[in-house]
Amino acid sequence: MKEILKVNNVSYRYNDAPKDDFVLKNINISFEQGKTYAIKGKSGSGKTTLLSLISGLEKKYCGQILYDNKDLSKMNLDKYRNSDIGIVFQSYNLLPQFTAEENIILSMDISNLKGVNKKEQALKLMEQVGLDKSLAKRRVLKLSGGEQQRIAIARSLSYNPKIIIADEPTGNLDNETESEILKIFDNLAHKDNKCVIIVTHSQNVCDKVDKVYDLKCVNNKTDL
Amino acid sequence: MYIFKNAWKNITRNKGRNILIGIIVIVIAAASSITLAIRESANNIVSAYQEKNKIEATIGMNRNNLMELLKKDNSSQEDMIESFNNIEIITAEEIDNYGNSEYVSSYYYTYDLSVDAKDISEATDSLVKETTEVKTKTDTKTKTSSFAPDHQGPGDFQGGSTETTTTKRRTTTTKTEKIFNEKAQDGAFKLIGYKSYENMTKFINGDYTIIDGEVSSDFTSDSVVISEELASLNNLSVGDTITFVDPKNSKNTYEAKITGIYKENTDSSSNMASMFTNSANEIITNISFVEKILSGNDDLKATITPTFIIKDSSSVEKFSQEVSEKGLSEYYTVTSNLSEIESATESVDNVKIFATTFLIITLIIGGVVLIVINMINIRERKYEIGVLRTVGMKKSKLSMQFMVELLIVSFVSLMIGAGIGSCLSVPVSNNLLANEISNESSKYDDIGKNFGINQEKPQEDSSNDNNEKKDFKEMNFGIAKVNAVESIDAVVDFKVLAELLGIGILLTLLSSLASMIAIARFQPLQILKERG
Q1: Are residues B329 and B362 in the same domain?
Q2: B16 — contact with chain A (CB < 8 Å)?
Q3: Domain limits of chain A?
Q4: Is there a contact between A103 and A93 (Cβ–Cβ < 8 Å)?
């Protein structure tokens, strides 16, 4: 399996934190394509912070993050986020004024995807995440939580990224829906050769992924 | 392209927010279009008036300098006239020199020559008096006598058979001397010579109108145009010939054919004691004919009146300075009709100033309100910004999308505002102007009352058959002539629309700046965390 993402000796502390008060310290982890990962830890252990670092939403850190052997700090992070990595949030983060289909197409537009019929592609993705095409024209606020999360996943897949990062993707969902969502992630990794990283504190999720990284929070110092 | 698509979707799907912004922009646009339309129309009126009444400068006597010269050394009246006669008259060559200036768009001159005429009477209701000065002279005469005087005074010569006596005889001599002003001249008729139709401003302005015949197009012919009054008084008609007589040498006579008869289109005369119009004895001819008369007698002097059409108001002073530098005598000065033109458009200028001030205030208040609304809008849309930034939308594109949204809303609102403004601009502007005219009129009414003149404002000329709106109304109070603008037809035209659009874009960009700064400062992760 090809190593797609590598975190080398990464440390992070908040701007307003004391000098030695690191949320993450000397983190060394790597991710491969075709596998599912879970980053586990208690609240405040730095799970979401790590997610924001590897998704390019946070730039100020010590150490090195390599995407496909390229230093993330030297990359265009907007381009990275709209082409190479798909992010799925616990609260879905869809645009409420847009329909399900439009949310997916917007993501394709932002990534400047060409040579594709975007509408057809959006419907195909909806189908892939288990949504009926009839929901395409519906405003996202009129969809259920599970349906919104599927739309969020479809959106993250719309520009065919190599990595899917999901932050507590099943946190707001019932067990049945959670299983269905996890099944989707599993398929994405094992069928579509994506690297799926799930940030979670759910043991159920951890049980279903290929590898778990546990962030233990001890005296504000995280060791792996 | 998707930016425009998304912007449009955001506008149509967030109606409440955009209607609020739209209403503010409509109010700003309507107020701005009214003020811009008033300003533009006022400018047009002033320009049209200045076009119609070009800034003209002429050269006249500098009375102050002249009086200083004449009063030198307690001179007698005779010396004063002598001094006055010694002042060189401006020549046509000098006028050509002055007219060749960057501040002058064109120039022309006319000759005024006083002449007499055979067999026709001047239109006058007063006697011509000749001034006679009487001088008394005493002569002393010496006489030798062989007779002894009856009385001898001490010191008289005495002795011998022959006696010489000296007798004083007093003789009184009366001497009559006519002293006249050579420049003023003493002919009965005023012969005015023009160079071309373009120079005949009184005919162009409509002060004079030909009622029979025509003004000859041959400006070298011995032809004249006379007043209706003169023609009537002497039973003259087109085709008759007038014999002009040199007032200083009656042997010199010149014949000219009457080609036309004109009427002066004014009801009043500047001379309140005259039954005739000012122009009754004015005989219009061409420069060639005047020069022909002048060439017959070197003593005969004609007044040359130059008229310089000045390019713009700022050039008047510069032209005056240039003419002085070119050697115009200190006894002459450049005068212009600039103050009259400025005075005539004063009420419009006041409305324009008010409109400009109102526009600035509207734009400042409107701009601030728009920025505040836009900032509130951005705060409301923080989540949207966070999501779009998270999925990789560039800050620049996000800013552009927000700006496009605001531009579309602003453009539509500007058009609506311009429509409302165009409907309101005419009544608003005329209401403002009516107040201004009322103030101006009452000012002149007060002056008129001071002189015991109860002068009503004249009504618009009902004899004016053409449909052209008469913008300027003449108010003659006997002491001052004021041309006032009667109405402003404020129109929201393409220029106003373009200005409005410019203002709209400027305000939109300014208020978009707030969103750009916010977008640049917002951290997507932070926004989404807050939302979570």
Answers
A1: no
A2: no
A3: 3-223
A4: no
